[in-house]
Amino acid sequence: MNPAIQYVRDNRKRHLDQLTELLRIPSISTDPEKKKAIGQAADWVSSRLKEAGCTKVKIHKTAGHPIVYGEWLGAPGKPTLLVYGHYDVQPVDPLELWHTPPFEPTLRDEKLYARGASDDKGQVIIHVNALEAHLQTTGSCPVNLKFVIEGEEEIGSPHLDPFIGENSKMLACDAVVVSDTAMFAKGVPSICYGLRGLAYLQIDLTGTDSDLHSGTFGGAVVNPANALVAMLASLKDANGKIKIPGFYDNVRKLKAKERKAFASLPHSDSRYKKALGAPALFGEKGYTTLERTYARPSLDINGIWSGFTGEGAKTVIPAKAHAKISMRLVPDQTAKEIARKVKKHLKAIAPKSVKIEVTPLHGGEAWLADTDHPALAAAGRAMKGAFGRKPVFVREGGSIPVVGTFADVLKVPCVLLGVGLNEDNIHAPNEKMDLDQFYRGNEAAVLLFEEMGAGTPGGKKKKK
Ligand code: BES
Ligand code: ZN
């Protein structure tokens, strides 16, 4: 038995207890009231990196939340792997839908329930456990490691690009690995080679100086809530096509080969629909479900509020109406271009009777990798070793803004070795991590370091 694998098996309980500790910290990056928790999470990660064997660990302050850096560079001549992940989490509302409190991690049915269990605390930690396993069993690690664990991923990583730009020497590596995605399905390991980008906007409409009695004034002025819903409804047609001028201008067409590959994945619309509890699926006509989520842009209202939403009835014309909307993007759209086009269009269609403000909140670029790189093959062997089956190649609909930056600035391949599951409820109530996925994830990381270590710096496999 591989001693490092044996080590992670022997230490399952301790690794789970440690993850539980981290999950107790409510590090919600978008909530200004959680600044203390953010600091605690950064401290926790930093201590754990030291404990696992990193020889240099530093918490880098930014104008926002800190970035934790750790390194173990004790294998000269071996490749260097940069592990990226995030210790921040999404907000927890609606709180009443959680079966147990989001920051009181609870075990049920071999799953650990807590905000961040899968996204991303439970995934990033597998690499720290793997470093520890190698060091504790052999006194060394097959690869050099650099960890970059940030606290602002869920708000678009606003301070990470400058950090990478300023520290590109310190971060030099042969490949980046990120565990912040899902496997295709339980029992179907996957390697992800594409992510969508994102452009996120807030829309604020103002009708009048104050709320009005809807009897006295109903019919005399425009209701900004009515205006907002009409505007939003017009952004898409009945076939799911987005009606914003120029929106599809830079969308890269799906190649027949890729469509064929997606079609061969073990996906069933009826199972998918059932798993979501959706009466029917809906999306852009002419594309399959996987094509739509992997490789076509989308537009969604993420939140909308105005007027009276309390119990009972109140006859009022609200003075203001608001919405948060976001567009998922694909190559070669850019977040800036789409934010500009959507803003221009919203301003053009707003009725003269309201004032409109459109504020871009954050964004990130789409990413698409070359599937032929040896680093991906190494990751594939590691996944097979841990999950018992050769992984399939997939793209994902979610976004990890920094992945494109790593590719552009560090000029190295990025391996997305996700061990989450689509049913983990990330960003939703009752987020969880399947324990079997976590334990196998630890093994996948152990094997990944071995597989990458068998190559030479630069990524080529050593000739035997
Ligand atoms: N882990 C997700 C990204 C993800 C989710 C990738 C599902 C693939 C499948 C990540 O933490 C995340 O949620 N990112 C944000 C980024 C955004 C705020 C710029 C996202 O996708 O909404
Ligand atoms: Zn997330």
UniProtKB/TrEMBL annotation:
Annotated coiled-coil segments of the chain: none
InterPro entries xrefs: Cyt/Met_Dipeptidase (IPR051458), Peptidase_M20 (IPR002933), Peptidase_M20_dimer (IPR011650)
GO molecular function, a single term: peptidase activity
GO biological process entries: proteolysis
UniProt entry tagged with the keyword Cell membrane: no
Residues in Peptidase M20 dimerisation domain copies: 193-352
SUPFAM superfamilies reported for this sequence: Zn-dependent exopeptidases
Pfam families: M20_dimer, Peptidase_M20
Keywords from the UniProt entry: Hydrolase, Metal-binding, Protease
NCBIfam families the record matches: PRK07907.1 (NF005914), PRK08201.1 (NF006053), PRK09104.1 (NF006579)
Protein name: Dipeptidase
Organism per entry: Candidatus Polarisedimenticola svalbardensis
Lineage, top ranks: Bacteria, Pseudomonadati, Acidobacteriota, Candidatus Polarisedimenticolia, Candidatus Polarisedimenticolales
